[in-house]
Amino acid sequence: MTLTLKAGLILVILAFLASVCYVSWHLWRITPGGLPFRLAAVGLFLLWMILAFAGMGLSERLSVRAATVLSEVGYPWMIAFLYLLVIFILADVLTLCRVLPKGCLSESRAGLAGIAGIVAVVMTAGGIHYRHKYREELKILTDRPLERPLTIVLASDLHLGYGNRRGELSRWVDLINAENPDLVLFCGDVVDLHLRPVLEGGFADEFHRLSAPAFAVLGNHEYYGDVDGAEAFFEAAGIRLLKDASADFAGIRVIGRNDRSYPCRPALWEITDTTERFTLLLDHQPSHLEEAEEAGIDFQFSGHTHHGQVWPLSWITDALYEKAWGHHMRGKTRYYVSSGLGIWGPKIRVGTRSEYLVLHIVNE
User: Fold this and answer.
1) Do the beta carbons of residue 239 and residue 208 sit within 8 Å?
2) Class of CATH domain 135-363
3) pLDDT, position 105
4) Which of 239, 268, 236 is nearest to 255 (CA)?
5) What is the pLDDT of residues 40-88, one digit of tens each?
6) Residue ranges per domain, the chain?
7) Can you spell out the DSSP letters for 88-153?
8) What is the pLDDT of residue 18?
9) Per-residue model confidence as pLDDT tens digits over 90-113
């Protein structure tokens, strides 16, 4: 790890700790009823935070069932923390601007109930919203020769593991099969960091229910976890893994890139052959989109961003990427950056959506 990276990591940790202290202080101030009630409010908030981090750090030491429960209880703290932080910052700004009275955040039963109610409603609505999977459809007309018109279902960021269980995967497979696809493509982060729940839960059997052949590429979560185990899982699931390689299918060429996490990833032009076929690129992270345009790719599909997962984090991904979500075009190359079918961490979406893409490729 370079000195710059270490310094950046330290700054992030310090900023996070400062934010936790800021929210805790405001919870202390706004809670009425004296010392016992204030201690209870701040203590429950910090205990919830401990459960969230315990779910990340202790999952492999617990049974799969216990780790799943811990993650489902603890992870929503991240969303509660984010919105408490946003509300308290906004309230402080409005107080400084004299829009709100000075003592509105001090020992206020109505203020505490109102803030808790807003956060609870947002989180509940976000959880319901996450369960709905959006079907995005795109038709591409091409003058490239095709053996037949093709329907391809593309999805990214399933994040299967302690959070997204086999029952959810089964529902997703049903959604995919309902499209009667010719081909199914998965664009990275299919498996979350930990393989144990996926293997013990027999998740590979669900993929065998797919009604069409399936290709996939690796994402950063597969590389951060057990990449060799992830590759073995794809093989057991009957999914062909493309690692800086291509495969021809019914007149199109599918090119799969290793994730940017892979230390020796070649340039795109090195794995792209001159061809008259329609070329479809799977690249987990939507970085350097100009590479696909320069290589003459017809269509690129990416994921990774989750579009921030919840507002206002979507503003950050919009600032970081040329295109953080949705349709895009550079020259003659078309792109779709997916916000993901699954999710990482808390199963809550606010201002973003869980989705899959149904792509139709037909001759002009």
Assistant:
1) no
2) alpha beta
3) 86
4) 268
5) 999 999 999 999 999 888 888 899 999 999 999 999 999 999 999 999 9
6) 3-130, 135-363
7) HHHHHHHHHTTSS-TTTTSS-HHHHHHHHHHHHHHHHHHHHHHHSEEEEEEEEEE-S--SS-EEEE
8) 96
9) 999 999 998 888 778 899 999 999
